[in-house]
Amino acid sequence: MRAKLQTEILPLTKPDHSVHFYEDDALLVQGVVHFLGSALVGGDYALCVATEPHRNAIESLLADRGVDLHAVKSRGSLVVLDAAQTLAEIIPGDQIDADVFHAVMGKIVAPMTAEGSSLKVFGEMVSLLVADGKPDVALQLEKLWNGLLANSGVSLLCGYHLNQFAEHDMAGHLAGISQEHSHVIGANAYARSIETVASLESEVSERRSIEKELSERTRTLQVLQNVAATLVAEQELEMVVQVVTDAGCQLTGAQFGAFFYNLENAQGESYTLYTLSGAPPEAFATFPMPRNTEIFARTFRGDGPVRIFDVTKDPRFGKNSPYNGMPKGHLPVCSYLAVPVISKTGLVHGGLFFGHADPGVFTSDSEEFVVTLAAQAAVAIDNSNLANALQRELVALREAEERSRRLAAIVETSDDAIISKTLDGTIVSWNRGAQSLFGYTADEILGKSVTILFPEGHYDEESEIIGRIKKGQKIDHYETIRRHRDGSLIDISLTVSPVLNDEGIIVGASKIARDISQRRRDEAALRHATEELQQSRDELELRVKERTASLREAVGQMEEFSYTVSHDLRAPLRAMNVHCGVLKEDFRSLLETEPDAIYSVNRIAENCIRLDKMIRDVLTYGRVARDELSLENVSLDKLVQEIIYHYPSLQEPNADVQFKELGSVFGHEPSLVQVISNLLTNAVKFTAPGVHPKVLLRTDLLDGALKLWIEDNGIGIDPKYHHRLFSMFERIHPELPYEGTGVGLAIVRKAAERMGGRVGLESDGRTGARFWVELPEARHQR
Question: How many Cβ atoms are within 10 Å of 247's Cβ, its own excluded?
């Protein structure tokens, strides 16, 4: 095995030109940072001509050690060049052109040493030449540097990787290169390397193995670097976690992976999402989110990574229903690796989960890679949550500002006086409404005591108001008096509220004052009007009492008249009808001697009967309009059955009356008998000769009411007579042989209205009539 490199400095008789042979890039970077950093800290100049990886590492370490890179570059104290690009400028062909070298490098070095300042230079162009198999050109470049450095006060450090000499069989050139430098770092190791060149060849295979491992490490670092760059640049969180999941599969060799994480939306509500890698979304679409089982619990709790050689053989596997293992159709998993994603605050954002169908796929390196990814993901989620929280704060702030602007506009344009004051009564704000109400401008009143508005006898109100405000109480609609600038008094209503600072401490009061002078005048006018109204009410009540007494007298007279009509008027009619019967029975032979005698007697009897029926109908109408009604639930089915039973004209074979499940209404049963019997007998009566009467009863349920329909196949009613039909003594068909008094439908209308209902009909005058009665629906019994 190779001896470990020894780091030492050997003084030679050359200008201040050092060379560092190295195997470990980190050691080189540390040495260069110490070399250049000492110049920058001391206020001198530094020039770095390095490869991109070394250049980035040097700048990063300088920044870590407190060097402000932006500042030193801005003032020219530090110049950083790319070694490959600079080398291409000074070697336009295969050989170095000394004039070109001095022109290019001298142009850079001269300004930095013009005032005798110290300059330290690190260069890797010679290392690139050796790597390209051109050690002679590298040696020539070293000599040109020595020439440039002579008597210039510049210190130069060159870097060579030892592997370059072994790979290109150039170990013999080490001595020549070392002779061109005043100091050599690692000289003893290189001397031994020269003596054991043969042993280097035997290590080629070992180096290649190491190189392969380094290449894999480089690839891994590149993946991690790409992820880190994405996390910095990408704003969409779902894209970020997808990149992390994909990178985890790439670094671990997993067949598929998932990232389950909790996310807050714009309203601050949390919900769970997931990303997949290595498998289509539909492969997991039918499966539920992972549950807090024994295997998953450690990850969801944030206890640490979980790596299992074969999860199917783990004693914790298959212990939970309903699946007792992996659900049917789930992708096969043997190797299992899970790492929690934890915020800096300790909050578990979610977890990274990876699987493979073969056992033992995931190594400790795999676990380390995923732990790194999880840390990066946690930072990204934290940043996203902070950004979302900031966005919500900004939105809230904008809304608050907008509310403040609206409030300020309302305050300024309000007709009410809006005033704020400190706890000692000093006025600190005064709107235009206050100026209009009290007469003072803001310039005149701000900074003065609010008691300037108090008239005599009201000064003690302020201490009482402030006392309640200090207790956090709000004062609503406190009516009092205040003084205008011109000395006049104003009736006002006050609403006073505490004003709190950001810490919730009461620091003042906000007062809204409204002029109620007009209201007071209105109240006085209202009181006067109320007194007049009361006087009018008393007078009206007296008139009502007088009118009631008059109505009672009229009702008594009406009842007396009804009795007279019922007994005294109907008695002669009955007597006339009896005598007509006696004439027809006892004097028929005599009457038959005169052709018109029998006809006249019959006409007298018929008119007596008709007049008696009209009197009864008029009495019925008066009773319906006058009597007190006691309303109750009434079954229409039962009522219609009883009516048909008592009216033979409604029974077969005289008529066909059909009904079914009519329901119940809230009404007066005797009045309902009047309504339905009148409508049914009319339906049967007004039928064309030779037509068998058919009547259908049905109901419609309305909003809180029930509508009873009575439909017939009679002669119908011309629409031009519909508006007259329910009036007293209206007969639509007087010329036809249908008996009637013209009072029945008036009784129907009056009875329905007394029960809180209404009536109507539909008919075209040719195909029958459809009468309807709408009444309140039956009430539920309690």
Answer: 26
Spatial separation of the C-alpha atoms in residues 31 and 42, rounded to whole Å:
17
Residue ranges of E strands in 61-105 = 78-82
Phi, psi of 702 (to 5 degrees): -105, -170
Beta strands 705-712 and 664-667: pairing type? unpaired
270-277 and 256-264 beta bridge pairing: antiparallel
Spatial distance between the Cα atoms of 731 and 175, rounded to a whole number of angstroms: 144
Q: Is the backbone peptide bond immediately before 53 cis, with ω within 30 degrees of 0?
A: no
DSSP structure class, residue 317? T
Rounded to an integer, what distance in angstroms lies between the CA atom of residue 126 and that of residue 101?
A: 13
* Best CA proximity match to 165, nearest among 146, 143, 144, 186: 186
Q: Which residue type does 259 have? A: F
Nearest to 180 by CA among 49, 12, 7: 12
Give the three-state DSSP class for 471: coil
The pTM score is 0.33
Q: What is the DSSP track for 137-172?
A: HHHHHHHHHHHHHTTS-EEEEEEEEHHHHHHTT-TT
Query: In this structure, what token pair is assigned to residue 135?
Result: 């050690």
Q: Are 348 and 301 in contact (CB under 8 A)?
A: yes
The DSSP element (H or E) to which 342 belongs, if any, is strand 335-342
What is the CA angle 22-28-30, rounded to 5? 150
Q: Compute the distance between CA of residue 175 and CA of residue 394 in angstroms, rounded to an integer.
A: 67
Is residue 49 pLDDT above 90, yes or no? Answer: yes
Q: Please give the single-letter amino acid code of residue 176.
A: G
Q: How would residue 252 be classed by pLDDT, with cut points 50, 70 and 90?
A: confident
pLDDT digits (tens, 9 = 90+) for 420-446: 999 998 999 998 888 988 999 989 999
Q: In a 3-state reduction of DSSP, which class is residue 254?
A: coil
Nearby residues of 269 by Cβ (< 8 Å), 6 or more positions away:
none
**Sequence-ordered alpha helix ranges (H) in 628-736:** 636-646, 669-685
Measured CA to CA, the distance from residue 583 to residue 568 in angstroms comes to 23
Distance (Å, whole) CA 246 – CA 255: 11
For 395, the enclosing helix (H) or strand (E) is helix 364-413
Write the single-letter amino acid at 229: A
- What's residue 195's pLDDT? 44
Contact 133, 168 (CB under 8 A): yes
For residue 697, is pLDDT > 80? yes
